[in-house]
Amino acid sequence: MISRRALELATAILTGSFGVAVVVQSLDNGIGWSSAGVDSGTFPFLTGIIIVAGSLYNLARGIVPAVSLASVPIAITSIELRRLAGLFVPAAIFVAAIPLLGMYLASAAYVFAVLAIPRHQSVVRSAVTAAATALALYVVFERLFQVSLPHGALAAALGF
Amino acid sequence: MDNLQELLHGFTIAVTVPHLALMAVGVLLGILVGVLPGLGAPNGVSLLLPLTFGMQPVSAIILLSSMYWGALFGGSVTSILFNIPGEPSSVATTFDGYPMARDGRPTTALATAFGSAAFGALVGVILITFLASWVAQVALAFGPAEYFAVYFLAFASFVGMGGAAPIKTVVALAIGFAIAAIGIDTVSGSVRLTMGIDELVKGVNFVVAVMGLFGIGELLVAVEEEFHARAVSSKIDWREVFRAVGRLPRHSVALLRSAAIGCWMGITPGGPTAASFMSYGIARRFSRRGRYFGTGEVEGIISPETADHAAGTSALLPMLSLGIPGSATAAVMMGGLMIWGLNPGPMLFVDQKDFVWGLIASMYVGNIVAVVLVLLTVPVFAALMRIPFVIIAPLIVIICVVGAYSVSNSYLDVVMMLGFGIVGYLFKKLFYPLAPLVLAIVIGDKAEDAFRQSMLMSKGSLGIFFANKLVTCLVVGGIALLLLPLVLQFVGLWRKPALPAPETTAQEKVII
């Protein structure tokens, strides 16, 4: 279970650290005024400062919750968290597998795994859906639009 | 009357067989992404973008804008028949649309929605027809300082009128600007904000951000609440369609008021979502039958739908004449314009007359095509909603992955897209607005260039932003909008017993 407050704080810290990174990086480019006009780091530097300041405000608001925040103490219940993970984790594994398996094999495996393992569909129907997905991708992108999707290290090793 | 002549010329471009076919394709694809939860108009338009590179710009924009109309209509279909808004901007339609459909009047609800939507769109297009070229003419005299002031005004109006928490809007905007700055700086040629990753030199494409923020993010929000599509009958009774549309003029006050709200929110970048909620809230307060709202009132459907479409249409006005998109989808389209080699802004009205007037004429025709097609295809798309979500979800993930990859054949883009997905989910969950983030990514560079050019002109003095009446008005207006939430808060504290408006809580849930 994740409370609304924890989620607010985590997000504020996330945006804040992005802001800090922007500020630090833009200092390398130089901020302020030089002979060539405004230095290239100035604008990002200012946006970084705004992000940090805004995040600090949101952080403070998260620590001292307003009335509207208190009315929704729980942002994500454990059941919802499981559902989120059920969608996101396979998707992340799918993306991680693309360099090795290539887009076609990876997406077929992804569809098959998501449908067959939790028994949403029978194995045969999952396999058919998976094959159809890969085939549709191939026809639409490789053939119709002439966009080459990654074939993967495995296919390269096998000589495709 | 020049405008009318140009418009007639535009019709000769728009009403040709290939362009009508493109409209039909665009509208159908638009309804598809509008119906599917997790895919929306910004995604759909970004997905189609790579396919338009070989086209004439006018054909390309007709395809993309038709998709936008289709998506706006498609979102209403699922709102009414399934109580599931396919688009954030059609959430307000569920309040009265679904109860009416459940009462056994789905045709009446759909026809009322489409009729008033078409009216809203028509008002928006008429506004563009007569106002856009005038605005562009004024804008032709703009220098960099004026441009920066207009950008500033646009961003300030998000903060002042967007409806989300002001500081969260500011953070979202600033993050968008920082993301836009990643890569090679166009003025000095130096590399910025790559965080040590060499591949980031090419910058972050807005399509990658849109795929993640709106695609994966929305999917995560959708999967969290388990989906139960309890559909009502989706049969269309054609006689009832005409009867329902015939009854619309009786509600002309609501129609006109909602259209006005929609146009205002579309031109200032409030966006369709805020417009539909505001219009619904105002209608409930002023309608004689206001207390029956939520039980299937006709005006409860008319108000959000008219405002939604009026805002969606008029969001293209500032995009065409100033180069500032009024909504997230318009921002994506503007990115397309830049890729096709056009320069969004007042020069379009001078250099690219065929493009501008072809587009405006196509908006009249496209909306008619959209109404007809959406009525014809309601049963088909309603059947699509009965496909289990577990099958649709992985397919949408694959579409987003392929969409992000095909932007520049980069695997890093895919990984970033997934990261944007998490950000999109968190932002949606915590009511950070997403539209200003996308807007800032698309026009961040232009705003920065305008700022730096004006600084060069004034040799580093901020006085250039107060150098003449026009630019002073714009800047002061922007500052006023920025301070508006603060002032309202003080007024609220002063008049303590003010009741919290009931619609704000519902609205907060869906502001994107």
Automatic annotation (TrEMBL), chain A:
Membrane-spanning segments: 43-64, 84-117, 123-141
InterPro entries noted in UniProt: DUF1468 (IPR009936)
Pfam families with a match to the protein in the record: TctB
Recorded superkingdom: Bacteria
Keywords: Membrane, Transmembrane, Transmembrane helix
Record-annotated DUF1468 domain positions: 12-150
Protein name, entry field: Tripartite tricarboxylate transporter TctB family protein
Organism: Bradyrhizobium rifense
Lineage summary: Bacteria, Pseudomonadati, Pseudomonadota, Alphaproteobacteria, Hyphomicrobiales
TrEMBL record, chain B:
Gene source species: Bradyrhizobium rifense
Keyword annotations: Membrane, Transmembrane, Transmembrane helix
Limits of the DUF112 domain: 20-439
Protein name: Tripartite tricarboxylate transporter permease
One Pfam family it belongs to: TctA
Membrane-crossing segments per the record: 20-40, 47-69, 109-135, 147-165, 171-191, 203-223, 259-283, 322-343, 355-382, 389-408, 414-443, 464-488
InterPro entries: DUF112_TM
